[in-house]
Amino acid sequence: MSFSIIGTGSKAPSQVKTNDDLARIMDTSDEWIRSKTGIRERRILGEETITDLVVESSLLALEDAGVQPKELDLIICATVTPDYITPSMGCVLQRRIGAVCPAFDISAACAGFLYAWDIADGYFARKLDSKILVVGAEAVSKLVDWRDRTTAVIFGDGAGAVVLGRGNGLKAIRLNNRGDETALFARYQKGNCPIRRSQNGETAGHTTTPEADADTFLHMEGQKVFQFAVSSMCRDLKNIAKQAGMELEDVDYVLPHQANQRIIDYAISRLPLAPEKYLGNIAYRGNTSAAAIPVLLDEFRRKGQFRKGDILAFTSFGAGLTSAAAILEWDKEE
Ligand code: COA
Predict the structure, then answer these.
(1) How far apart are CA 44 and CA 100, in angstroms?
(2) In percent, how much of the chain has pLDDT > 70?
(3) Which atom of ligand 1 is nearest to the CA of 109?
(4) pTM for the whole thing?
(5) Given this model, what pLDDT does residue 283 score?
(6) Interval between CA 102 and ligand 1 midpoint (Å)
(7) How sure is the predictor about 95, in pLDDT bands with cuts at 50, 70 and 90?
């Protein structure tokens, strides 16, 4: 016995940015972005903050679950772009919604939401009768260099949440990591400590320069990440079906990380599942990192896509390089 999903919610940022909007600020085109990624537009934070979206999506998920914030036993936020370095997004969310439980963030990039599920699974093993709020939220627009066409065009912002309760929904979950500091990364600022000693014993001056600041943007080796994404997605889906004691063909819907439609198309061509089983929203959301899966789940669930007993497979990958997969039976009465 582990957990079942008892509520979902998501909230999109207010600003829509089309490919043509991007072509006005960098050397790119709608045709290039659509053919290379399948993305037509993405949502970007306007006046609101990522915390605002997290609060709204969490309240929607709680309402859907019929759970009061004070009934929550734990809050886990998966994000690499919180509004504060400290306190965590989880702590800020806890105060804003009036919850009283422990709360923290995890950093596993795009796979973060499934990493958070794995932590929740352990928590349910220890304290069976719990209610856990798991959030995936990202403001990637804060992290990308908007002069860098090779990276900026694929990302968007968003937030999604689920409430987990005791249940038999989760059938299998598996996390992977292939440590890599060069394929996809963003550094902290180097700081400007004036009293730090340099290697030759001299007292260093202020070290922050415009170049050092530029160095904090997200860097991506697109083709390296692409190859990792295709191979991990195919391997993880096969392995997770096996771990759940089923055939991949038993899966009714795959909810893949929304990174690039071409990555998903490769997986479709290599796995024995009909293309219509793969759900997607990348065309109008872009890659929202840790938010991609909870947003996708909430959108399709609210469209009435899932029936009780449907088998859903989740697969994600991202900076780390992390990857994760899960199989869950949809057992919420609609
Ligand atoms: N608009 C127009 N041209 C662009 C461009 C853009 N936005 N970005 C790159 N180009 C150009 C390059 O400069 C290059 O030009 P050249 O041949 O004259 O040198 C050409 O297009 C091909 O660039 P390349 O980087 O080889 O493209 P690609 O086929 O690898 O596609 C990505 C680029 C980013 C779409 C692709 O690599 C990708 O999606 N990778 C995975 C990224 C990902 O999923 N990241 C998140 C993981 S969670």
Answers:
(1) 31
(2) 94
(3) 48
(4) 0.94
(5) 98
(6) 41
(7) very high
Gap from CA of 226 to ligand 1 centroid (Å): 10
DSSP single-letter state for residue 38: -
Residue among 150, 218, 265, 317 whose CB has most ligand 1 atoms within 8 A, to mutate: 150
Catalytic site positions: 110, 257, 287
Structure tokens at 21: 């909007």
Ordered by where they begin, the domains of the chain are: 2-169 (3.40.47.10), 172-181+218-329 (3.40.47.10)
Residue 299 has pLDDT above 90, yes or no: yes
Residue nearest to atom 36 of ligand 1 (CA): 222
* Per-residue tokens: 121: 């699974």
For ligand 1, pick from 18, 36, 233, 260 the residue to mutate: most ligand atoms within 8 Å of CB: 36
**Are 80 and 122 contacting, i.e. CB atoms less than 8 angstroms apart?**
no
DSSP helix/strand/coil, 10 = strand
